[in-house]
Specification:
The protein is an alpha+beta fold. About 40% of the residues lie in helices and about 25% in strands. The chain has one domain. The chain starts with a helix and ends with a strand.
Length: about 150
């Protein structure tokens, strides 16, 4: 039976295409990625192994173009911890939100967030923020470093 070069070329192309589609996303991401809506951040967190359950899109942010909340199991208590995910249209809006979180953390001596690209995750404390950064990359700030 003869196999033409065209048939072999098509088979090789399909094999290579199949291999590239099987590649898994490598975590942590660079932190430079950008998102269109906050839902995508929650999906990325879950895909990377960070539990972000019961996601709900929010409407209350003054600076974020898109925001939402999800819940993460808290290691030390039976209560889940609220995680706020946000996407910004401008760097200025993102910086304003970061400064707001810094000011709040100074008042209550607690808090933390991870920021990168056009996004931010309010994760509340260093262990949770570290886990977020292990998926999304980015820059972590917690109350002890403000």
């Amino acid at each position: 039976m003869r196999t033409s070069l065209l048939t072999l070329a098509i088979a090789a192309t399909l094999t290579l295409a199949g291999c590239s589609s099987l590649e898994e996303t490598k975590y942590p991401l660079s932190g430079l990625q950008e998102y269109e809506v906050s839902d995508q951040i929650a999906e990325e967190l879950n895909a990377g192994g960070f539990d972000c359950t019961d996601y709900e899109r929010g409407t209350g942010s003054l600076t974020a173009a898109s925001s939402g909340t999800c819940w993460h199991p808290h290691a030390d208590t039976e209560k889940d911890q609220e995680i706020i995910v946000m996407v910004f249209n401008t760097e200025s809006d993102q910086n304003s939100q970061a400064q707001l979180y810094r000011n709040m953390a100074d008042l209550i001596d607690s808090g933390g967030f991870v920021t990168g690209g056009n996004w931010m995750v309010n994760c509340g404390n260093k262990p949770v923020c570290t886990s977020v950064a292990e998926v999304l990359g980015g820059r972590t700030e917690t109350a002890s470093v403000f």
